[in-house]
Amino acid sequence: MYASSNPQPRVTRMHLFVLVAMGVALAACNKSEGPTTAGTASSATAAAAAAAKPVAAVSEAVAAMSADQLRESASAALRDQRLYAPAGNNAMEYYLALRDKAPSDPAVASALTDLMPYALIATEQSIQREDFTEAQRLYALMEKTDYQAPALPRLKKTIADAQTALAARTEQDKVKAEQDTKTKADLEKQRVAQQAAAQQAAAQQGGPRPLDEQLREVAQLHQSGVLTDEEFAAAKAQLLGKG
Predict the structure, then answer these.
(1) Does one domain contain both 28 and 114?
(2) Which of 136, 191, 223, 233 is the most buried (most CB within 10 A)?
């Protein structure tokens, strides 16, 4: 990309076409499957942290590099296809830091223009998988590259809406889990109380009740949901074995 003894590989239109096609296909797949529920709580926590703390587009270590170091690192990142990731070691960060040091360099401006569509696709994919920390980082890269980019307002709103939806879903899951725990505890208390009452009644009668009466009681407990299928089968087998 520069007229030097070590020319930099350029992001071509063919590369862009292939990656756009892959990104669209992946986004469609993610939409059809829907976001997974695994790790919802941790995702919500990370999303809240990302929203609360401003994201720096260029790391301090990269910003401290010299212009020559940035050019060399940017060339290596392009060769290794580290276009926008990982954080702190990608072509976009190097070029953004280099632009701060050499704002009139047309090669740097051209490189950032070529890289913008890749960052856009990666941002969309991060939102789809609810990785909002990465989505915010990529958004910061795009915003620093061109704060007037047409896609930025839409991306900002999409990230915020997705974070809100995730937080609401996480709260609903928490409430449901608490309700399920309470229901199970109540059923356990009911089961223990009924068993204690039955044993006490049997003791007061001077011996075990008739088999058919005990079988009817076990069946009623099963129908009311106090006994699971496995517990009902075990209790019935035990009674019949004694009979």
Answers:
(1) yes
(2) 136
Q: Smallest Cα–Cα separation from 94: which of 161, 144, 42, 20?
A: 144
Domain boundary residue, one of 171, 192, 213: 171
Indicate whether 60 and 162 sit together in one domain. Answer: yes
* Close Cβ partners of 52 (under 8 Å, ≥ 6 residues apart): none
> Which tokens in the block code for residue 233?
């089968």
Q: Could you list the mean pLDDT of each consecutive 10-residue stretch along the chain, which spans 243 residues? A: 43 46 44 45 50 79 97 96 96 97 95 96 94 95 96 95 89 78 78 73 64 82 83 83 63
Asked whether residue 128 falls in the same domain as residue 66, the answer is: yes
153, 173, 176: which is closest to 35 by C-alpha? 173
Domain contains 5: no
Cβ-contact 169, 150 below 8 angstroms: no
Quote the tokens at residue 97: 């830091």
* Whether residue 167 is found in the same domain as residue 70: yes
The reply to whether 6 falls in a domain is no
Render the chain in DSSP notation, one character per residue: --SSSSPPP---HHHHHHHHHHHHHHHHHHHHH----TTHHHHHHHHHHHHHSPPPSS-HHHHTS-HHHHHHHHHHHHHTT-SS-STTSSHHHHHHHHHHH-TT-HHHHHHHHHHHHHHHHHHHHHHHTT-HHHHHHHHHHHHHH-TT-THHHHHHHHHHHHHHHHHHHHHHHHHHHHHHHHHHHHHHHHHHHHHHHHHHHHHHTTSPPPHHHHHHHHHHHHHTTSS-HHHHHHHHHHHHHH-
